[in-house]
Model the fold of this input.
Amino acid sequence: MPTNLILFIAALLVSWLVFRWLFTVIKSSATTALTVAAIILLLQFTFGISPQELWKEIINLPQTFQHLFKR
Done:
């Protein structure tokens, strides 16, 4: 079997694996981004909680956990 053919097949396999991995990463990232956006919109329209308030609470999470576990 010629070396060029083996190299070509190996390149095809590696390219296929890289593109498959890249597609998986992009799909996962897009799904996560859409989920976060849906949660933020739900909080905003249902409860009137702004994204800034949510971000402030996220930043305070470590302090909240410390306070809960000290009890």
Helices lie at 3-47, 51-59, 61-70. The chain has three helices and no strands.
